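Lecture notes, unit on protein representations.

Consider one protein chain, 627 amino acids long.
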Amino acid sequence: MKLTDFITISDVETHILGKSMVGRIFPARDDRKAWANLPTDLQQAWLTQAESYLGYEWPSLRATAFMAYFEEGSRKPYDSVETERRSALCTLLIAECIEAKGRFLREITNVIWLFCEQTTWCAPAHHYLSLQPGEVLSDISEPLFDLTAGETAALLAWTSHLLKAPLDALSPLIRARIQVELDRRIIAPYTDRNDFWWMGFGEREVNNWNPWCNANMLTVLLLMDMEPERKSMLFDKVLRSLDRYLEVQFEDGGCDEGSTYWARAAGMLLVNLELLYRSSDGALSVYDQPLIKKLGQFVYNMNIDGHYYVNFADGSAIASQDYSMIHLYGSRIQDDQLRALGQIGFRTYQVSDRRGKGISFFQEMISLHSFASIHKEAALASPLVQDVWLPNLQVMAARESEGSSQGLFVAIKGGHNDESHNHNDIGHFVVYVHGKPFLIDIGVETYTQKTFSPQRYEIWTMQSGYHSVPVINGFEQKEGRSFRAEGIDYENSGDTVRFGLELVSAYPVEAGVQSWHRSLTLQRGQFPSIELRESCLLFEPTEQVLLHMMSSQLPQLQDQGRIRLQDSDQNQLLLQYDHEQWEAAFEHISVTDESLARVWGDSLYRIQFKLRKAVQQGYWVFRMTEQ
């Protein structure tokens, strides 16, 4: 699909260019009725949050904090301060629009000035975009357009747009300075450069950066003054760049970056589409296109229960989704399951949770102005899908019953080991019981310099040895597109759902594998179970075969080939295996990383099955039930 097949620059010139954007995308500050009609407690929550920034001692962005990324590998010293600045400005801007008394204008001016005085808006981790890499500081003469620069630009554009009169009354130099900085840092590099990889005009395949950066560029285009010819040219470039993103999306809507990244992939595509839709009064829309619908539906297809999601790749099992945006997406594509997920997730929305998280003004405005209507809607049926099969992404998910988290849930993936945010995890699977994790995908630790470096696969969470796949003759899976699944096979008879794949190409030739076929079956009915079947043919006999399974629960090794896993709610999973063939043990892993600890606490476990005797050909069954 190409966006430009449906929305041309001629359409943009007819329906957007030359039109006033005041009140068109969101209510203007002077639309007192729209702001006064917001729920009183929600208004007060934003005002209370903003009041904490009155008289605020704004933290500085030190050169040494920027350098810390290159010297120590840590993103936190610099990124946390910059994120707090954006969070503060977003909060103050919303509060000023709610109250419209000028009480927050001076602190808004303070943080505007801080942003305008920053040497760069680009995060240290993204300075590889520079034409002169290797520096530990940023060159002010080379503005770089990355995710954080775009977020800062869009927020400043909204501030200038919504607070035009009060800021000009304070000093016309404030908005003039914003215009200068947006021209220099965002508009000029977007105009002049085609080599930012996320634009899609080079050889590198794009990912979520493309819709994310383009959504921020589109915001600046819509809200800031610019010569008509230049604006038209930039609109055309945005549309062509978004084409590059849509061209590489799977027809089944699957996101190889994982469900955690849905909000930054399909979710950011939605921001682009909604900006075009609202700024044209609904004239420019592609919400009826099949691919757009499939991309939206991916997020509920990966929902296990509550905030638990299938989390292959750099995902977290507990995903932080923006549920008002999910609800909006569902409304636009007329999908009640997507709307239902938005309804359910939005129940936990709290303004107090937003501080310091780099919150997006667009998404917060969607939450704010749809809060009352979402809560008034009649409750929709649970969106928990019984069977999911994504043949392009090569992911299967299945549960015992449609619309219910009760019973067994399983998901397994194929694919290749060069996916965006890749882990070496072909054939990896997860098992949940009553919506709670038992056999898991660990996820990813807090990002550091190493995460996106040539040393990525030195990190334990990226390695296949810490996923539920075999280690053969001491060899784990390797990274790279040539290391892939083959022979994908999916069957669904209703009571029985099975996914099979050949793993031989996931391993280096040194592993000595002629064939390793894995299948995972969910059996529904009176005696539900999950069966993992392994069938292998090796070039030489060996006993050096390990099967790992990762768990969040303490394994209880019992007699006669049984392992029991039980959580604090007394949910349990019984794992049965051939103890004459396999020796079982487990390793305790102390969790020290902050990101992992938020999901799993302080402990994880790696269950290890080791062959008791050498084989050249083998066939084994591992059976999982609740009891």
